[in-house]
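S.,

Sequence below, as promised.
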Amino acid sequence: MNGNSHSTIRAIRGPVTLITIGVLFALNNFTRYGFDQTWPVILIVFGLLSLLRRGMQPTGPANAPNMPPPPPYSYPPPGGYSQSPYAGGPASTPGAPPQSGDAGAPPGGSV
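The prediction came back faster than expected:
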C-alpha cells in the first residue's frame, strides 16, 4: 500500500469507466436489457473505485506531511517561574507581607 498503488488506481479509473459504459451500451443493443435498466452499474463501479482508492491512501500521523511537528516539551527553569501565571506580576509567597507593587498594599508600603 504505497503511493504507487494510489496512482495506479487513479490511472485505471477512466478506462474502467469507459469499459463499463461500453458494456452497458452493448447490453442495450444486443440483449433485452436497456440502458435505462442498467445505468446504476455505473454508480456501483464509481463507488467501488472510490472505496479502492480510499483503501490505498496512507493514514496515520506518520504519513501526514502537512502537519507541523509537535512543540518540544520544556521544563520549568531551575529557579522556578519569575511571574505568577494568574496575577501577571511577580510571584508572591503565600503568607508573606505584600510588597510595594502588589495590589492591596497601602501606598508607602507600611501596614
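The chain has three helices and no strands.

Coffee later?
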